[in-house]
């Protein structure tokens, strides 16, 4: 494709795949797109391990990393390993009582502390934690760093550029995109509210051309509700240079998603991907579940700010829920495209389906518009 981002990275098609799974990253890059590894659930040692594996399997194709580096989240240091000091007891009791009433067994007393420590080891949400992982990553041949929670720090942009690494950031409003451009980002990812994970409240159809116009001539990727070639075509028609997609890879055989959660996704409708602060403390679109529903009850305490709500879920909820695969509480960040995800497929099939449907869309438009 004759495309700014294809030229920037030497790729065949401007399909940028966000995934926490190294297998997805490698397969998308080998299929001609650009795999981007999400590192929010990793610690620095795990980052090193994952990137070593990618380097050994990606056959020299370009790839990138994605971090959560929010400018308004304070570092909490090692307090996340000590919920007695970190979390209000009212909230701890609320979650424990909820799980007890649902019959979700508590953690084995002898193993509780170690299970919780292992669970939160990879939960890195603050600037200090993210920067430590980025430092490790920059010793590998990464070509892109994406920040999912705000404008990247100036020192990171400068250092990345000095090593030939491109920088991008997600934006849910035009003013955010303008800040990214002014800070020196190489391109912007306009993410509509349909997206999974942390997102805003403006739909892709409105947001994409809004941000394209705001940062012109900077390239823009369209994200949020992208899972097939027709949506790819729509993004290009609205001025984007390509697409950013994450949820669609969750249905693949290469995905890291456990079978029990993947099964829930295949049963879900688009409106089962809800926008809630219950999981991380920031608006996050995730698969509906009993934990998120409970925070809407009149007797529920106020949700904690990020990253405390995130620690609460991981330490007091997820550690128990995932140990026994309690289906009603199982969740995963996923976008509204989940309604189209009905069966398992492969990464390569998803990429080829994107391209074939894009070409079909072009042929249809050519036929409608004439010479």
Automatic annotation (TrEMBL):
Matching Pfam families: NMO
InterPro entries reported for this sequence: Aldolase_TIM (IPR013785), NMO (IPR004136)
Keywords of the record: Flavoprotein, FMN, Monooxygenase, Oxidoreductase
UniProt-recorded Gene Ontology molecular function terms: monooxygenase activity
PANTHER family per record: 2-NITROPROPANE DIOXYGENASE, MONOOXYGENASE RV1533-RELATED
Record-given protein name: Nitronate monooxygenase
Organism phylogeny: Bacteria, Pseudomonadati, Pseudomonadota, Alphaproteobacteria, Sneathiellales
